[in-house]
Design brief:
The chain is built from nine helices and ten strands. The protein has 351 residues and is an alpha/beta fold. Helix 4 runs antiparallel to helix 5. Mean pLDDT is 86; it is low at 23-27 and 337-351.
Length: 351
């Protein structure tokens, strides 16, 4: 199965939609009722954090690849009746700091630690963290390494290979990133140090070879997918900093959008687009199956007639699923006079 080509198609579709949404937002005055804070997550790096207010359990919103937290200006206020809602603008975007796009500043680990840094700075007690698109990697970093920090994770069209590596089928880009790291030992003074793990290296070489041949078979009759000029250096750094997360240890809601966009016409371009859509659909089915195998307790929801920006195209459906999922989580607990006790909404009696 050629997972890398589907990743490229997803990225192309995302980058096409981002400027359209940004152009719409640029024409609007920011009337969303929120406060803004700049929170330091490491020396010389501050993130823009929006606070829409609300009550009871904290809910933190993370954005897609090219967006800022303002993408949630219309969505977030719909949640404040039940939750205290925050949004984080990722480093490299908007008003947040823009560190050098090197090998360490935009890895999945670093971006995940940014989110945890904001949670700690705001003194949030086990928030629910919801993310769109590429934010799935930050969610899975937290769910893999620090599940005790959160009550639950919500993937809004964010459950793709950057969030969960399909151990049965692999994914060419992620496997190639890992292989590149493994091969560095042969270019960084390998004569002075023994090779760390020949068995794993050879297995990954064979895996990548197999995936390259699958990509060749899937795409040999398709025109190349050009690199978007909207791919800035920080976005490239994020894509190159992805990791292979194989499971999630926190309660998780995973929302997939099932798009229904038939390709009109019968020309060569239309046929190529139909093939691309079929490959993307196959990729989505494989990801759903991967969640069933590797994260069996995750609650997977598929919303029909939706788009990648599912929280906009199908807002009511997403709000319903978020509320239903959070209702299944244990009551939040806070420290009162040295004792831990459930936190209930003001005015609500306990029966």
């Amino acid at each position: 199965m050629n997972r890398r080509f589907c990743s490229i198609l997803w990225l192309a579709a995302f980058l096409i939609s981002v400027p359209l949404l940004n152009a719409q937002n640029a024409q609007k005055v920011d009337t969303s009722l929120h406060s803004v804070r700049m929170i330091s997550v490491e020396p010389d790096v501050k993130l823009e954090v929006l606070d829409w207010g609300g009550s009871d359990r904290p809910l933190v919103l993370l954005t897609g690849l090219g967006d800022t937290a303002h993408i949630f200006d219309e969505f977030a206020p719909k949640l404040t009746a039940s939750y205290h809602v925050y949004g984080i603008t990722r480093r490299g975007r908007g008003a947040s700091s823009v560190p050098e796009p090197n090998a360490t500043n935009y890895t999945a680990d670093r971006l995940g630690e940014d989110v945890l840094g904001v949670i700690d700075a705001l003194h949030l007690n086990k928030p629910v963290v919801a993310g769109h698109s590429i934010a799935g990697e930050e969610l899975s970093y937290i769910g893999s390494h620090h599940p005790e920090k959160v009550a639950g994770l919500i993937y809004m069209e964010a459950g793709y290979s950057y969030a969960l590596y399909d151990q049965a089928n692999g994914e060419l880009e992620l496997d190639a990133i890992e292989l590149r790291c493994q091969l560095r030992q042969f270019t960084n003074g390998y004569a002075q140090e023994p090779v760390k793990d020949y068995t794993d290296l050879i297995a990954n070489l064979q895996r990548v070879e197999k995936e390259v041949k699958e990509q060749q078979q899937d795409t040999e009759d398709l025109p190349p997918t050009p690199v978007s000029p909207r791919m800035t250096s920080d976005l490239f750094a994020i894509m190159e900093g992805r990791e292979r997360f194989t499971t999630i240890h926190a309660p998780a809601l995973v929302i997939f959008a099932d798009e229904d966009n038939p390709v009109p016409g019968d020309g060569a371009q239309s046929r190529a687009q139909a093939v691309r859509q079929a490959l993307m659909k196959r990729n989505k089915e494989a990801q759903v199956a991967a969640f069933a195998r590797q994260v069996p307790l995750a609650h997977v929801v598929r919303i029909p007639h939706a788009t990648h920006y599912v929280f906009r195209s199908n807002e009511a459906d997403v709000l319903r699923e978020i509320n239903a999922f959070i209702a299944t989580l244990p009551p939040r607990r806070v420290v009162r006079d040295g004792l831990r006790a459930p936190l209930w909404p003001v005015g609500q009696s306990i029966r």
